[in-house]
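Dear colleague,

Thank you for sharing your sequence with our group. We've completed the structure prediction you requested, and as agreed, I am returning the results in plain text so they can be pasted directly into your records. Please verify that the sequence below matches your submission; if there's any discrepancy, let me know and we will rerun it promptly.
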Amino acid sequence: MFGFSLVENNVPRPAPAEVDGIEPLGFELLGAIHDRLHEPLQFQLSMPAAAADAAPVPTDLALAMDGPNAAAMLGLVSGGWVPVGLWKRDAVLMPDQQAISAIRKHLHGRAAAAEAAPDFIDRLADETLRFNPTLFMIQGLRGRLPKTVAELAEGYRQFQARIGDVLPKAQIFPAQAEAVQSAIGLLDQRRRTLEREKRFLLAAMPLLLAEAGKSRRLALWQQLLGIAQQHQVAPASQLFIAVLSATAALPELNPARELLSPAKPYMEREAYAALAKLRALDALSAAIALHEQTQTVLLTQDRALALWWSGVKPYGQSRSGKVLNYRLKLDRQLFQRLDGEEWEQLTALIFQTPAATAKTAS
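Please find the predicted structure tokens below.
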């Protein structure tokens, strides 16, 4: 049987009615449980401060998640991640393609499998929720970005149909005209950078495939920096940091390597797929910048994507014209093979100034 329950001092208790979501969870917890997301789980959490006239929220709480896929889908939010259903009441959900397919596959078979144990996705069907189509609109078809307003408008309508087909209570937010304008801004940025980012990945991949020990690591980073500069990829960009992290994380917890998927041969198709995942995080940051008062939740089953988002922890999202700006707060577990001296060398390489700002377009 699927369900959530709160545990206080090892005693189950109902969730306080006045609590609106939970505080975002971080990289360390997800790193510890990422290979057990299909199992019943229990872990510590923090609740937002209760209203002044409400009963106090206990501080020693744990979340118990029961059921076969209790945490298989995650919600990426500003500051980290939350389990499905534990976002704010007025949150807007932005599912990626994989999440949409999982929702549709499960709910299409819901009636035929009425005797099956409830799944976490059933929670979505029973509530009135808002869904943001921007990520679906910009992901494109057949390995290319949408080129016209008409294509983006068609993407909006396709999203509306696919979500509405299985979640009739769903509301699409924002309206089509605003969604198209937001998508246009993101796509303008991506078109300026996509080709050189692909070329950078293709050029850097042979170096990622060759294992580098500590004695060669700094030289490897300098080589990668040279390739990045050649292709106008900023050292403080998520892409360049992901390439460095792939060389410096432990094998058993290396989300950057999973996102980039180094392989031989490594072709444009593989590079585009890796960049599409980082583009999804830019879509989330753009929504956070545009809708500051509303919690946007990127729904995904991609554990590596969730780990990466929680590990680089973008913050301070803002828009300057068509350019999306944000800063990163790197978790050292993304570079766990490094000692203190190497960590200083790496951060000096990435952040040319102490308050370097990551930009998605130049």
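Summary note from our side: The chain has twelve helices and 13 strands.

Kind regards,
the structure core
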